[in-house]
Each structure stands twice: as C-alpha cells, then as structure tokens.
Amino acid sequence: MSSPTHPAQPPHYAELCRMRRHVKTIESIGRLLSWDQETYMPHAAAAHRADQAAALSAIEHEQATSKRLGDLIAQCEADKGLTGDPASAEAANIRQMRRDYDLATKLPTDLVSELARVGSQSQEAWKEARQKNDFAMFRPWLEKMFGLTRRKAECLKKPGAELYDALLDEYEPDATGAQIEAVFTPLRPRLSNLVKEIVGRGKRPGDAFLNVPFAPERQHEFGQVVLKAMGFDFSAGRLDVTTHPFCSGMAPGDTRLTTRYRGEKFTDALYGTMHEGGHGLYEQGLPKAERFGQPLADSISLGIHESQSRMWENFVGRSREFWEWALPHAQKFAGGSLDAFKVDDAFRATNLVQPSYIRVEADEATYNLHVMLRFGLERSLISGELPIKDLPGEWNKRFKDFLGVDVPDDRRGCLQDVHWSFGLIGYFPTYTLGNLYAAQFWETIHAEIPGLRDGMRRGDFAPLLAWLREKIHRHGRRYSAADLCAMITGKPLSADPLMRHLEGKLRGVYGL
Amino acid sequence: MSSPTHPAQPPHYAELCRMRRHVKTIESIGRLLSWDQETYMPHAAAAHRADQAAALSAIEHEQATSKRLGDLIAQCEADKGLTGDPASAEAANIRQMRRDYDLATKLPTDLVSELARVGSQSQEAWKEARQKNDFAMFRPWLEKMFGLTRRKAECLKKPGAELYDALLDEYEPDATGAQIEAVFTPLRPRLSNLVKEIVGRGKRPGDAFLNVPFAPERQHEFGQVVLKAMGFDFSAGRLDVTTHPFCSGMAPGDTRLTTRYRGEKFTDALYGTMHEGGHGLYEQGLPKAERFGQPLADSISLGIHESQSRMWENFVGRSREFWEWALPHAQKFAGGSLDAFKVDDAFRATNLVQPSYIRVEADEATYNLHVMLRFGLERSLISGELPIKDLPGEWNKRFKDFLGVDVPDDRRGCLQDVHWSFGLIGYFPTYTLGNLYAAQFWETIHAEIPGLRDGMRRGDFAPLLAWLREKIHRHGRRYSAADLCAMITGKPLSADPLMRHLEGKLRGVYGL
Predict the structure, then answer these.
(1) Is B58 on the interface with A (CB under 8 A)?
(2) Where in chain A is the domain with CATH 1.10.1370.30?
(3) pLDDT tens-place string over residues B375-425
(4) Which among B25, B51, B292 has the least Cβ separation from residue A25?
(5) Nearest by CB to B235, which of A26, A42, A250?
(6) CA-to-CA separations, A380 to A177, A184, A375, A449, in angstroms, rounded
(7) Cys-Cys link to B380, which of A40, B140, B332, B385 (CB 3.0-4.6 A)?
(8) CATH of domain A177-510
(9) pLDDT by residue (tens digit) across B92-104?
(10) Contact residues, chain B, for A235 at CB < 8 Å
C-alpha cells in the first residue's frame, strides 16, 4: 500500500491527508471526553463536560468543513493520477472524504454544537430517569433530542427520500429504511415462530449454570483471559466498568472496552465483554498506524462493526467448542461454584431462549425482535407519526405483540437504552444487520478455515482473527458493506444464514 | 459579587469573559488528556496522545493570543466604569487578564515550541542519566535548557530586574529572588541548627508504626475516609493511583487527586493523599461555578497552593490531635497490624527527623533545606555565575553544609529532580513559600477558631475548611499572595511561624 506521505504523492493529496489527520485528532479527543464521562468523571462535572464537548465539536466541525479542505478534495478528484483507477486506495480515500465533507457541510455549526451540548445533558437526565423509573422526567429531553435530530435529518436528506434514511445513512451508508424493512419483514415471523415454538415446548434446559455466585473481581480476570485468547491487545487497549457496555476505538493504539458485573449471571458480563471485544478487535485491526485520518483507516458501517461483535459473542462464545476451552477457566475464577457443571450444561444454558425485557441481556433469537421493535418505533417517532408522549404505551403494546410478554415498567421498557438520549436515531437496525452479516460471514469462514472448530476447542482463535483481519479489518472503508459482503461470501445479504444458524443450533438444544 | 453575564455588565466585558471562558474550556480538555495519560491510557497510545496535546495547545495558544482578546482587554482597561475602582472584582479580573495576555504574547512561538521540543528530549536524557548516575551525559541538555530558559526570561523580564525574577514570576507572581532570599537567609541556620540538635541527640523515637503490613486496597479506603473528613467532595472529584501523586483542578466540578500505595509505609500514601487533598480542597473552593474562565476563579500562586497542601499534610496530618481521631480508623483498615500502637507512637513516628538525600522523601524539617539548596543553585545557574559544569561539586558542597551529610552520588544529588530537565526553573522556592504561608496562616487560624484542636480530635475539620474557604479559596486571584497574607495575618510573610511550629513540635517529640 502506498503511503500518503510517500514522495510520489502529489502535494495536494498529502496536504489533504494532513488536514484530515488533524480533524480526526480533534475528533479522537472528543472520544476521550465521552469515554471519561461514562467511566470516571465525577457527577458534578457533567455541565462543564457538555461545554467541553460543544467547544470541541465546534472546532472539529469548523475544520471538517473548511473551504481549504473542500478545495483540496476537488483538486484531488480532478487529478487523474489519483482517481483514474477507481479501485486504487487513493481513489477510495478521496471518494469517502468527499462523502464526509458533503455530509459535514450540510450541517450548520450551531446545530452540531447544540446536538453535542443538549445530548450530553440529556444523557445525564436519562441516567437519572432510568434509575428512578420516571419517563416523565426524561420526556422533555427526548422531545428536544428528536427535535434536534429531525432538524439534522432535514439538512442531510436527499430529495424525495424519507427523513429517517438521512439518519440511517450516517451509521449504515447507502442503506434505506425501506430496504431494511424488506429484510426485516420476512425475518420477523420466522423468528417469532421459532421463539413461540421453543417457549411452547414447555421443557427447557436448566439454567443453574447462569446463577452461581461469581465475584465481580474474578469475573473481570476471567473476562481478560477470554479477551487475550481472542487476540485483544491490552498494550493498546483497556477494559473498564460502566452502566452500559461499549467499545471506543478512540485513537491509534487506544481501543477501550467496557462491561459490567453482578455477583451472579456471570455470562451476561462475559458476553458483554466478548461483544465489545469483537468491536475492539475490528478497531485494533484497522490500519490506523499507517493511515490515521484517512477513510481507509475507518470502519465501514455499524452493521459491519456489529457483525464483528456478534460473531465473537454468539458464533464463537455460544458454541459448544468455546465452552470446551472456556469452562475450566471459568471454573478456576469462580472459586468452586461452577465445578459441578459440564460443557453441555454451559452450552445449553447459554443458548436458552426466553423472552425478556432488556435488549442487551436478550438471547440470540429474541434479540432481533428487540431491535425490530426499536426500528419501527424510531422511524415513526422521527416521521412524527408517533408522538413522544405515546412512546411508553406503544412500546409496551408492540413488545407484547413481538415477544408475547408484558413490560412491567419503563425502566425495563422504553427507558432501558441510552441511544436516543443523545441522538443516536437510525442506529438500532444496524444491530440486526450485524447479526445477518455475521451469520453470512460465518458460513464462508467455515468453508475456508479447515480445523476451525478443533482450534476453538483449544482456545486457538488466531486463524479466525487472521481471516477477519485479512478479509475485513485491513480494508477500512475501501469497500461498501454490500460490496464487501458480496466479495467475501459471493452473495448479497440474506436472512437465510442467520435462520439456518439459529434453527440448527436451537433445535439441537431444545430437541425440537 | 456581580456576575460577568449580569445585564449591567458592558458588552465588551461580557465578550471578554466569554472568550476567556472558551480558552479555559480548551485548556481544561488538555488537563483531561494529561490526567488520562498518567492514569488509564494504554501504553501504545502515547505517540498519538502527544499529537492530541500538541493540536489542542496550538488551538488554545492561538485563542489566548488573539488580537480580538487583546483589543477587548484594552477596551475594558479604558472603561472607568470597570477599572475606576481598582478594588472591584472587574478591575482585578482585567488586571490579571492583561498579565496573562502579555505573558502569552511576549514569547515568540518558535521559542515556545523549541522549549517544548528540547524539553521533551532533555527529560528523556535526564531519565537515562539519572538511572546511569552519569551527570556528563545530562550536562549538554541542561546547558541547552538553561540557555533556552534564559532566552525566555529575557523576553519576559522587566527593565532593571534580575533574569531569575521573570521565571519565578510565572509561578509566584510579583515575587522576586531578592525577597525570597531575604526570607530564606535567616531561616536556613535556624533549621540547620534544629536538625543538628536533633541528630546530635542520638536518641530517636521508634519507627515501627511506619513499617506494618497494610493492604493497598484497604489503604485506599482509609485515604478516602480521611479525604471525606477533610471535606473533599467526591461527587466533584476522584482519587486514583499513579506513579507520581498529583492533583488536577481539571474543571468546574472536577478535581482529581492521585496517590500511590505500597504494602507497607502506609503513612507515605496517607500524607501523599492528604497533600493532594489539600490542593484539591483549594481547587474545589475556587468560585469556578460562577466565574470559570475569569482570573478570579483561578488560584493565586504555587506558593499559596502549596500552603494548602502542606497545611493538611503537616499541620493537620502530623498533629497529635489528628492521630487521636485517625488511629482507630487506620487500625480498622489495617486489619490488626496497627492494633498495638498508641496515639503517641503514631504522632512520634510521623514526626521523625532524619537528614536524607532525596527531597520528596524528606521530613518536615529537612525538606526546606533541600528547597533552599535548589533555589540558591538555580539562581546562580541562570545568572551565569555558576557554570553548569560545576553543578555537581557545588551541590554536594552545599548539601554537606546545609544537612551535614555527604552526597554519595549524583543520582542521589543533583540528578534527582525532573524539574530543570524541562525548564521548570524558579519553581522550587514555591515549595518552601508554601510551608511558610501555611505556618503563618496556621497561627492566625489558631487565634481565630476556638476549639480547633478539640474538633480535630473528633475528626471535625469543618471549621478549618470554612476558614480557608472564606479567607483564601473564594478570592481566586483577586489579591496577590503578599497582600492576601498581610490581609489575613496582619503581617508580611516571615520565617518565624514556621520555626515556632517546628521547634515547638520537635522539641516535644525529641524531648530537647
């Protein structure tokens, strides 16, 4: 790969890459502000943190939309030595810089900084409202955030397109609400039926494995052992504790994961850790050392990002082979409470299907129903069809319809997710896209890595990581999600691999 | 107090305060970068962290030296409604903003970046030279740094003043080398004689109290109990662990302390925590909520800052009354290893006097001799009177003279401190100024707070903190250190209170 600072690069391209690098450096500081806010920031610092975030995003936005940057992009686009071959790294970089620049220049600076400021305050309000189970306390903030986000969508939207698509495009470039609906619509009854079949069966494997005492400090050590086996580099990353687990691919050499522990239900923490670890491995595999600031050092889309986290969490972590390796480690750290369990107990217990209220704790089958619920709701909230005040009622009604259970309170209903509180709207569907991509990649991986399952039994995940690095991580944003999927798997995205995976595994677990 | 956003404020003053607030907001983000680098940043992120810090300080410097900011200061200075009463908050703010602006604009950018660049290399050279005990290796870097710092002093110095004063002024505004010499000169023989008397006595109290096993996690809990009793607000601050303890008054509502633990020598950690806690209480007491960005929300000087840390560390923490309250807590957290000790053991052991080579490990009496040594040397090094090549010899000669012991090698001599390696020259004397201010304030506090000692015996430090808030913290930079001292104590700064404190306490401990 040619380097942007290679003497053969024309000066306008080199300057463009330098300016982008500076913008992305400012952005990376903003990520530290967010990470710190979630992890260690004292409560009383929240108001000033909002000012800091607003000041920094204003500076970043100003630089990301500067006339000089636009001129350089145009000059590079016109330079056939750079863009003559559309498949070249330079051409891909310039195309994506054009996309980013156009998106950024469409947003007025005051709106960007208002979104950052109100979002930061609103997130604090959400924390309190969730804790107090008080939707009324959060409602004015949610109205503000949807109002601001609607203004944002109006700035970004293409003529004739749905407002929602303009938001979705930020997270899943080129996807539309209608396309997603077209994939989700046939998936939902298949999933609902599978879940109903399982629940209807009445008989379920025991869940004693999930309910043993396991000290949080020891869970933390166990999680680190698993992350190391996955290939996560702790000299360039961390694992901390937050209310809501996340991964921040903060900067070159700096990928931070978070998880959360309780004294029991250790697999919730484990799968949270593996999930964020999957994101973290993608971030650590991007060519940031060589290309920081260029689109070719960035991830493609949230759907592809989520395919990485879900693959490690569900396709690896909920496999029988994983437990053959992991169970002795878990037993060691649990200090006795897991000693009586066998691999089969672990495998079955971690594949229980049980409709429940909390998305992040949902099993592999019901999870996608949680996502589809949010996708439908946020699309109606943005269009204005559904007023914010009706959200709790509509949430609970649809939840009953999708999952067959009654939501007991808003804390376990529409107040459970942080996303909307700071304007992440159009983000939820990427979770299910991730599951679909993961399933489709996983079938190809099985065909292309002989001995994968045997390696997993020994805790050897290196061939899998090497495959992901080679096929996905190293490319950054060089290809679109759809093109990458077709390149790797030979087919467009489909719901079939995910259904094959779930039906195959769960029919086995439940003896259907 | 009138607020800067009060409708009665003229628009140029309001705009000035807004611009300053923005500059200080950027600066506060830089403090988070530093704190994170010392606490949680992964090792591999170091190179990018330097890029982040450089990008942010360039933005901050550009704003702090902008022509608009200078014009607004001039316009406010000329507005008699603001500056007509020199004692008003507005007049004080404008004076200090002028000072900051002139300091920032007097230094040529190339010198600032040269100091940063060479300072960073020189600090690396210092680390290696100290480790190898090799002054010759460090000498060319020290010559460069004193040369660059001399150039800096020439840019900043007032006509007719000593070069050294221009450097000192950055840390202790309006102080001069001659004034400090006038205070230090009578102090030195009195301290030296006291130390010699103690050492000559031969008999010393036992130090077993200092050498018990004490788990770091439990030390951390004990430290937090002490900080809470001192009045440190954990909803607006934190305590973390770093190699070198520090306090960062990062932002409004955000004051972060660090300390370090070993499995023994728990009082090292305790006094580190109380010291940084004293700095932290000052930061939490500054009127940042109302005035962030204005000089009236900043601390006066390093000497006054150090008076706060030293007061809590030495005047409170090394008192018999403190141990009457603290010993039962320490015993509880130590889990048995302190049970046999009495208050008197704790009091005597934490007041041992023993000449030693390393300043940061020195006791309350010898500490100031270490500082005076450095003050005299750096003043002669800047004036050129003492050539760098003669530093080790001169250090060792004076050390023998001040502390009565021979320095075994340069690692434990002139290579021990990091300060000079990156240009902190004129900084050392503020450590002893802090001790002097603390002692002088302490005598006044005793006169003005009846029952202070009885309260301390019960762990009630609220009257002390209230006094510090009222007399010192809330004023920010409204008064100079000298004026504040005279206002509070009715006298100019003198060495007598510190000597009375040390002689009184140590004669008791040693039965002289």
Answers:
(1) no
(2) 177-510
(3) 999 999 999 999 999 999 999 999 999 999 999 999 999 999 999 998 999
(4) B51
(5) A42
(6) 11, 16, 9, 43
(7) B385
(8) 1.10.1370.30
(9) 999 999 999 999 9
(10) 42-44
